[in-house]
Automatic annotation (TrEMBL), chain A:
CDD domains: TM_PBP2. The chain crosses the membrane at residues 12-31, 100-120, 141-160, 188-207, 241-270, 290-314. PANTHER family: ABC TRANSPORTER PERMEASE PROTEIN, DIPEPTIDE TRANSPORT SYSTEM PERMEASE PROTEIN DPPB-RELATED. It holds the Pfam family BPD_transp_1. This is Peptide/nickel transport system permease protein. It comes from Roseibium marinum. It is found in: Cell membrane. Residues 94-307 form the ABC transmembrane type-1 domain.
Automatic annotation (TrEMBL), chain B:
Keywords: ATP-binding, Cell membrane, Membrane, Nucleotide-binding, Transport. This is Peptide/nickel transport system ATP-binding protein. It comes from Roseibium marinum. Pfam families: ABC_tran, oligo_HPY. It is found in: Cell inner membrane. Belongs to the ABC transporter superfamily.
Length: 323, 320
């Protein structure tokens, strides 16, 4: 297990290096930030001076080399727009996004798993049919449309929940979070629902299929013949089998959630990194874009590693192969 | 004393193509400590008979008629909770494929302990001790360690022993063994056979041994019941059935056992194949494959009883 983790960490370093190179070149190709940073009537001398101060006058390999060297020392450059370290800008916004995605993920699990088990256990019944139809709507209706409908219904017509912003987050143990204040939670509900619906639909369908494929297996019949309760069979025997594909999907979906958070954050004016990256791309704020993508890649690597570890915890057959 | 009495059991499957009468009027009884061999081809309804007794027929299958009495109790009238209390405690079942009967992601210990705790109030440690003893009893070395192992760490024969140990945890009165040796090597097969036989005798358990292999049953059962197309076509004490079969189908089965064949001669076989459960012939279902069929065979065949034997045939063998 330890060698496995070490090998994965070394791979992770390679992946980060490769990503940084690709992103750096790609961002370089998008356009010249000077066009946006300077007023259109700026003189040639001013342009040259700003370019020199930002290091934009150097050839690409030299720029990349300087970036890499600084990055290895923990410095990802200053944002052109905010004139502060790029990482600082990102980490200021990241908690809001993680809060949103984790809430959405938990919601889709806590609702999706029981619904999937319920439907899978009663194939062909009304319950099954309605859950399945509902889940189709869940992932086929466009994300932004769902978000707008949520605002229409719960914020505009019913007036129950606020439609935009993060409200006044409270503070627990020195961490500022929406969970700590009622206002924060109220602001979190709609965007979290919006973000979770698609994912919830996937988890429902996956769980239902898993249950329906597992229930006819011999070991379930043997478990019944041993006199176990249906509850134990479903929640222990079947659940442990279907958790393996579900964990895989959660790993992939977490990434999708962070990505889709861009849409949700835009609709609900949620001050997270999703909005930041859109703004930064528009402003050609290179250091922020590069730093953001590196943070996301690190997050993905960490999730994948966690998924692989979870596999071996869930499935003894994988465990003994790895040993 | 009668342990199990099945009479006129009917288990049908309603399918879009029609009603499949998998079990169509099966009757037999079993005394305490007795072993009955239920023999037949695939699709003859022998496994479904076993599942019907446990109340574990999968939909769309349903027990639609007959009675099942276990220790005097009517199982068809029993509640699901009562059946669950009996399953694994008083009536146990062993399955055909040991690769499939244990949950691959739960340890042997977990699966055995949960079986103990489903029926008895006791501490986890006591349940574990009980599981360990059960493993030891079926000849698994170092049972304490093996409790923490997972099914894939056992060979097929060992897995079947684990399944048997699990089935025997509560020393049931009745075991339904659904071809438990079919998937195993011949040497392991005979080991398991003799072990089950020994344990059944030791605990005084009744045993229904379901098999398509007459040879396996011949060495084990007190009585043999031969099933064909959802019915028992012949039943009686083992030696009588094997030595002087009355039903042409039984006779065909006995003759087609390779061991009965003279060396060098082509193996004997029953011509044709078992009818589809959807389109069974009128009257005797074996008629199209039978060399002795006569005019009467298109009618429904009544049972002929000549204690301790019975058969369903208009032209039984051994009568002139």
């Amino acid at each position: 297990m330890t060698t496995f983790v070490i090998r994965r960490l070394m791979q992770a370093v390679m992946v980060l290096f490769a990503t940084s190179l690709i992103v750096f070149v790609a961002v370089y190709a998008i356009g010249d930030p000077l066009e946006i940073l300077l007023p259109s009537d700026a003189s040639e001398a001013e342009r040259a001076q700003v370019a020199r101060s930002l290091g934009l006058d150097l050839p690409l390999p030299v720029q990349y080399g300087r970036f890499l060297w600084a990055a290895l020392h923990g410095d990802f450059g200053n944002s052109f727009v905010y004139n502060r370290p790029a990482m600082e800008v990102i980490f200021e916004r990241l908690p809001a996004t993680l809060e949103l995605t984790i809430t959405a993920l938990l919601m889709s699990l806590l609702i999706g798993l029981p619904m999937g088990l319920w439907a899978g256990n009663r194939p062909g019944t009304m319950v099954d049919e309605s859950v399945m139809t509902g889940s189709i709507l869940g992932f086929s209706l466009p994300h932004f449309w769902q978000g707008m409908m949520l605002i229409m219904i719960f914020a505009v017509w019913l007036g129950w929940l606020p439609s935009t912003g993060r409200g006044e987050p409270g503070t627990i143990f020195g961490i500022t979070t929406s969970f700590a204040s009622w206002d924060g939670i109220r602001h979190l509900i709609l965007p979290a629902i919006n973000l979770s619906l698609g994912n919830m639909a996937v988890i429902i369908r996956l769980t239902r299929t898993g249950v329906q494929e597992t229930l006819p297996l011999d070991f379930v019949k043997f478990a019944r013949a041993r006199g176990l309760s249906e509850r134990r069979i479903l929640l222990v025997h079947v659940m442990k089998i279907i958790l393996i594909p579900i964990v895989t999907v959660i790993g992939i979906e977490f990434g999708t959630l962070v990505a889709f958070a861009v849409v949700t954050e835009t609709i609900f004016a949620w001050p997270g990194v999703g909005k930041l990256i859109i703004d930064s791309i528009n402003a050609l704020d290179r250091p922020v874009v590069v730093a953001y993508i590196l943070v996301m890649v690190t997050l993905f690597i960490a999730i994948n590693l966690a998924v692989d570890v979870a596999y071996s915890l869930l499935d003894p057959r994988i465990r003994s192969r790895a040993a | 004393m009668t342990l199990l009495e099945v009479s006129e059991l009917k288990t049908w499957f309603e399918t879009p193509a029609g009603t499949v009468k998998a079990v169509d009027g099966v009757s037999f009884s079993l005394a305490k400590g007795e072993i009955i061999g239920l023999v037949g081809e695939s699709g003859s309804g022998k496994s479904i008979t076993g599942f019907s007794i446990l109340g574990l027929v999968d939909p769309p299958g349903k027990v639609v008629g007959g009675t099942i009495r276990f220790n005097g109790e009517d199982l068809r009238a029993a509640s699901e909770a009562r059946l669950r209390a009996l399953r694994g405690d008083r009536i146990a079942m062993i399955f055909q494929d040991p690769m499939m009967t244990l949950n691959p992601v739960l340890s042997i210990g977990t699966q055995m302990v949960e079986t103990v705790l489903a029926h008895r109030r006791m501490s986890r440690a006591d349940a574990r001790a009980k599981a360990r003893d059960a493993l030891g009893r079926v000849g698994i070395p170092r049972p304490e360690e093996r409790l923490d192992a997972y099914p894939h760490e056992f060979s097929g024969g060992m897995r079947q022993r684990v399944a048997i140990a699990t089935a025997l945890l509560h020393e049931p009165d009745l075991i339904i063994a659904d071809e438990p040796t079919t998937a195993l090597d011949v040497t392991i097969q005979s080991q398991i056979l003799s072990e089950v036989q020994g344990l059944a005798a030791e605990m005084g358990m009744g045993l229904i041994w379901i098999s398509h292999d007459l040879g396996v049953v011949a060495g084990l059962a007190d009585r043999i019941a031969v099933m064909y197309a959802g019915r028992i076509v012949e039943e009686g004490p083992r030696d009588d059935v094997l030595d002087t079969p009355r039903h042409p189908y039984t006779s065909g089965l006995v003759a087609s056992a390779p061991i009965a064949n003279e060396r060098g001669k082509p193996l004997r076989q029953i011509r044709g194949s078992a009818p589809s459960a959807l389109h069974r012939p009128e009257g005797c279902a074996f008629r199209p494959r039978c060399d002795h069929a006569g005019d009467l065979c298109v009618n429904d065949v009544p049972e002929t009883c000549a204690a301790p034997r019975r058969w369903r045939c208009f032209y039984p063998l051994g009568s002139s």
